[in-house]
Amino acid sequence: MVRILLTGYTDAEALVEAINCGLVDTYLTKPWNNADLRLRVARALDQYLNNKKQSALEVGNERLQARLKEMSSALLMQWRKRCAQKIHIAGNTRRE
Length: 96
Hints:
By secondary structure, this protein is mainly α. 74% of the residues lie in helices and 8% in strands. The chain is built from two helices and two strands, in the order βαβα. The protein has helices at 12-20, 34-95, and strands at 4-7, 26-29. The protein has a two-stranded parallel ribbon with strand order 1-2. Helix 1 links the parallel strand 1 (4-7) and strand 2.
């Protein structure tokens, strides 16, 4: 989510607090320039889309990490099983 504050008040302390607290991403005071408003909305849309892409990538990364952990565990179990089989075979060979 990207928040833009359009205000007729110029209470700098309140604006700074809102920005610092993460409540507002950008602000415009009246009277605003329409070209500037369009530019800020376009930037906000870009930021929103980038945030959405990043979230999707993070979810995908978490899924891949979980899958990698599963595959690593399975591979380790197979390796241990083969080692145990080789030890068993080696032990039987020595007895014969």
